[in-house]
Design brief:
Number of helices: 9
Shape: globular
Distance between the termini: 42 Å
Order of helices and strands: HEHEHEHEEEHHEHEEEHH
Largest sheet: 5 strands, mixed
CATH superfamily of the largest domain: Periplasmic binding protein-like II
CATH architecture of the largest domain: 3-Layer(aba) Sandwich
Helix content: 25-40%
Strand order of the largest sheet: 2-1-3-10-4
Strand content: 15-25%
Structural class: alpha/beta
CATH class of the largest domain: Alpha Beta
């Protein structure tokens, strides 16, 4: 009964044969369809159901019994916690390295770099909630390293995931600190580098190692897990602005 209630709460029906259910960090939302399509070229009978969210919230769901088969996190912390608690059945492995970017719907003087956030005309800065989103942690780290966090934190508008942060950056805020991967979505092509966005210097924050773990022992789950760590998947991640090891 408890499992059924969790399924209903998450909008997930009971899974039948040939279906795997994966929890995916929001920053991967831009690449996940291409990844699924590539996987289905060799596994056409496997349906991949995706639930997107912040890594912290997805981890909380998993700990409370959510029926995910595999977890693609935005960092290594959450998968490591699940492995330590023996919820994950595989040791976490890095599948990509994420990075940050600044974006604004308006033309900005990005020659100032991240110090642009100090401008008086910028009153709202979209940032992922560092309590639940690894990209939020990295953003705060970058601001601390250039010693402007205290000066700008009153401007923060928090998104609960990096995808929500992007939405806020382009609507409710003047600028935002987002996942660089989102810029490679087709719908983002109208925003131009050095006019609407720039990459944040990667020396300002710890590389965002994104980790994957299996939560269920199953041949189809293992096949998708192996695919995400394969050369074919790495090509797709690179196309979306990630670095790969």
């Amino acid at each position: 009964m408890k499992r059924l209630l969790i399924l209903l709460a998450l909008g997930i029906s009971a899974l039948g044969a040939g279906t795997i259910n994966i929890a995916v960090a929001a920053n991967v939302s831009y690449a996940i369809e291409d990844l699924k399509q590539e996987f289905n070229k060799t596994h056409p009978d496997t349906k991949v159901r995706v639930t997107l969210g912040s890594s912290g919230k997805l981890t909380a769901q998993i700990k409370h019994g959510a029926p995910y088969d595999l977890f693609m996190s935005a960092n290594m912390k959450y998968p490591q916690a699940l492995y330590k608690e023996k919820i994950a059945i595989t040791e976490p492995k890095v599948y990509s390295l994420g990075s940050l970017a600044l974006i604004s719907s308006k033309k900005r003087d990005f020659s100032k770099g991240i110090n642009l956030l100090l401008d008086k005309e910028i009153s709202k800065i979209a940032i992922a909630n560092p309590k639940t989103a690894p990209y939020g942690i990295a953003a705060v780290q970058a601001l601390r390293n250039v010693k402007i966090e205290d000066a700008v934190k009153s401007k923060f508008v928090y998104g609960e995931s990096i995808s929500q942060t992007l939405s806020y950056a382009l609507s409710a805020a003047d600028i935002g600190i987002i996942a660089k991967s989102s810029l490679y979505s087709k719908k983002m092509s109208k925003y131009k580098e050095n006019i609407n966005w720039i990459a944040v210097d990667t020396k300002l924050y710890t590389p965002i190692k994104q980790g994957i773990v299996m939560l269920k022992k199953d041949a189809e789950v293992k096949a998708f897990y192996d695919f995400i760590l394969s050369a074919d998947a790495k090509k797709i991640f690179k196309n979306y602005g990630y670095s790969v090891q």
